Amino acid sequence: MSVRSTAFLLFKRLVAACLLLAVISLAVFSLVYLSPGSAEQILAGGKGSIPPEQLQRLRAEHHLDEPLLTQYWIWVKDAVTLDFGQSIQTALPVTDELGARLRVSLFLGGYAFVLTTVAGVLLGLFAALRRNSILDRAIVASTLVGLSAPAFATALLLLYAFAILVPVFPAFGQGTDFLDTLWHLTLPALALATSSTAFLVKHTRTAMLGVLDQDHVVFARARGLSITTVLFRYVGRNALIPITTISALTFIQFVVGAVLVEVAFSLQGIGSLLVQAVAAKDVPMVQGVVMLVAVIVIAANLVADLFSMAVDPRVRLGGRAA
Amino acid sequence: MNEVESVDEPALEIRRLRIEAAGRGTATTIVSSLDLSLAAGETVGIVGESGSGKSMTARAVVGLLPPSVFVSRGEIRYGGRSLLELTERQWRRIRGSELGFVMQDPFTMLNPVRKCGRVIEESLPDAGRGTSRRQRRAESIERLAEVGITDEAVADRYPFQLSGGMRQRVAIAAAIASEPQVLIADEPSTALDVTTQRDILLLLKKLQAARGMGLVLITHDLRVAFAMCDRVYVLYAGHLVEAAAAAELESTPMHPYTHGLLISEPPVDRRVAELTGIPGAVPVPDDVAGRCAFEPRCAWSTPTCRNGTPPLTEVAPRHLSACTRVREIHGEMAHPRSRMRLAEPLPPARPPSGGPLVRGRDVRKVFDGRRDQAPALAGVSFEIGYGESVGLVGESGSGKTTLARSLVGLERITSGELVVDGVAVSAGSRLDARDRRRLSHTVQMVFQDPYSSLNPMRTIGSALKEVVRLHDPSATDPSARVAELLESVGLPAELAQRKPVILSGGQRQRVAIARALAVRPKLLVFDEPLSALDMSAQAQVLNLLTRLHRDRGIGYLFITHDLAMVRQIVDRVYVLYRGDIVESGPVDEVLARPADQYTKKLIESIPRPTGTWLT
């Protein structure tokens, strides 16, 4: 596959992503009109009657006198420049809040993702190689525990164990510089990563066993290749393929769906922001968060697809027998 | 080929090898006792049906048995060393550079995400260490040329971009890249087309001669073994039953099993009234422990055959047999081979009453998304009369399966006209429920793989009853009809209560045939119905088909790549090549006097034990 066709494929995917975002933005914009109450009431963030001069100001500020499509167009133009208006709760720009929260969430999500991938793949690999040994059984048994442990329970347990009984990690806060952040976010990341790691261990183990039993691994060893070479060159890469396909979902889940862990460790992340904004009927904030989440989901999936194209020539070259 | 080499110091020697598989609590025997020796540069064959243990023997020799399968006794010696005691590190010096290994399936043997050139580079001595990237690449291109791949671009292709034959060539090049003294080839040509099979075997022969390499060829096909090997070992249910020089084994088999295999092979040159199959199916080794493994299926068995495992003894110079009665029955075994009756001349094709049953005019099929490629069917015209048996011969990719699937309505043709018993299955017209029903009453299909075409969760009876009810809702006693169907394919009616898991491949295929017969079709379409079966089962099923055709007047469309098989069953044959019919006519005429180049090539490719097949 030439550079040109790869670029073309990438271009196609980007166009598709933009179209998807446009559809989502329409739904997000409609939130103002779909929520109970008039648009003015929602944008004022309150119930009951609004003084006439404030009503006038709101209508002008949000262009409520314009036709619906024009309103949408203005909203989209602002959204593209990352302007989602002001939060009703704080009267500060939505974008500022999003930026601050995103930093924490991406760090936490990335951290948990690295933990999951490294631990999940390594443990799965060992379990597969030492199939039916004590090590394998122990790993498989602990994945069952890990899978059935809810993140908030793990979070509380970790808090109690490593912040109170043996206080090696802080119980709350999100740190300042990189190392400090790393220190602060270790327990939350662990709590977040536990069940996904367990899932990935099982997944990797199955994928590895599948590859280990395959003819091409036997054939490679029959040509005198060492087990280590075969492992890295054959088993690793082939087992990576099914793993990449689930990694995007895992990452998204970490960044966006960490509400309970964020609450447990008093972190200011995206997940808790969304919950707060919905509870407070802070429509501009909800719109901002939802658009941000949509971008993250689409981007993560795109990266995962590109990665699997890089690893698997059958995807890249449209695998079919010549 | 006829001379037996003097074996002073065999390159490879196997003594009393026993292989077992660890199960829950107990171990099951895979190979009970095997002795084999291979002289330098010699070719020996290991012949056996599925379940004989031949593949596990091959993997034991290279020390790569699957997990939970192990050698429980015996010795494997190579170059004066005992291989079974080697450590993994020592094994690495043996594998590839002393013992090469090629497996059966070229589609799974190569790493799908690695370019062919790199596969060869990593197989070079010391993985090409100490040489530059360019040198290694040049070397791999040279190795590809050695196996007949002169197109340098192949080095940059991934395996899935190549045909089966090409993949097998790449695999062979990789297997011998470190110049092993002995190559172990496990069914290297079985998954390939006949024409490709011959090319691969020729290549192996050439490489072997050029390098003076020993070859252990594992195959289920006696014809292949005879054409390739100096000596042949016959394995049955984990037991070695006979070993002799190839030519001698062919002319004077000294074990009833070898004899049975030889007579169940359909002759290429004539049609016989009935093939002589071996009754029954291959048992698992543990069921026949402590006695002659072949005794339950043997025509000459006596109670003495059940007293202990018969030892392998030298019954003639350098001819070993594990039959204790061989001296008494030797003469009789020679007899029935010459007795194979020729079939009576074919009855003249019945004049079609009211036109043919199936008529295809300029049938084209192009698969969606492959418009850039050649069409699967490029405008073929053909006819099948009522009660006529027609063969469709071609290699994979010739469009023969597409044609069959279009006939039964599983595939819609792109253009042209296809009429089956008055129902137009042509392009553009969607079949309505009534026509679909009529079509399925007229034509039924029997698939290649009887292991995947029967639902393992349902009893055989319920699978058959379903079809009976579906096609004849007024049937008063479906169970009686099921029993009748089972009997018509030579199976006991009691099998209706059982699930397919207890059946052998041949029995499963009979059930599949019974299911197709349930609707009393006018035409049965068989897609390679025998290729998944063992040799002895093939003859049985073929006889069944001949009988059904004769007694019931059902027409057949018999799709196969096996010309010897097709000769035994069909009246007329169409030869399909790349979506086109290149030749057609009465089967005897086409086989005796092929007009088309491709037909000629196909006929030349039929495995023949001797003569000019592999020259």
Can you describe this structure?
The complex is a heterodimer of chains A (322) and B (615). By secondary structure, chain A is mainly α. Chain A folds into 2 domains: 3-80, no CATH class; 94-316, Orthogonal Bundle (MetI-like fold), CATH 1.10.3720. Chain A has helices spanning 3-34, 39-44, 52-61, 68-80, 94-129, 134-148, 151-165, 178-212, 215-222, 227-256, 259-264, 270-279, 283-311, 313-316. Chain A is flat, with a radius of gyration of 24 Å. The mean pLDDT of chain A is 84. Chain B has 615 residues and is α/β, with parallel strands linked by helices. Chain B has 3 domains: 12-112 and 176-236, 3-Layer(aba) Sandwich (Rossmann fold); 262-339, no CATH class; 372-605, Rossmann fold (3-Layer(aba) Sandwich). Chain B is built from 20 helices and 22 strands. In chain B, the strands form 4 sheets. In chain B, strands 6-7-8-3-9-10-12-11 form an 8-stranded mixed sheet, sandwiched between helices. Chain B has a 6-stranded mixed sheet with strand order 18-19-20-15-21-22, with helices on both faces. In chain B, strands 2-1-4-5 form a 4-stranded antiparallel sheet, with helices on one face. In chain B, strand 11 and strand 12 form a beta hairpin. In chain B, helix 6 packs parallel to helix 7 and helix 7 (194-211) packs across helix 20. Mean pLDDT of chain B is 86; it is low at 1-7. The chains are: A mainly alpha (322), B alpha/beta (615). Chains A and B meet through helix 9 and helix 10 of A and helix 2 and helix 6 of B. Chain B: Its main location: membrane. Chain B: This is ABC transporter ATP-binding protein. Chain B: GO terms for molecular function: ATP binding; ATP hydrolysis activity. Chain B: One of its GO terms (biological process) is peptide transport. Chain B: It is a peripheral membrane protein.
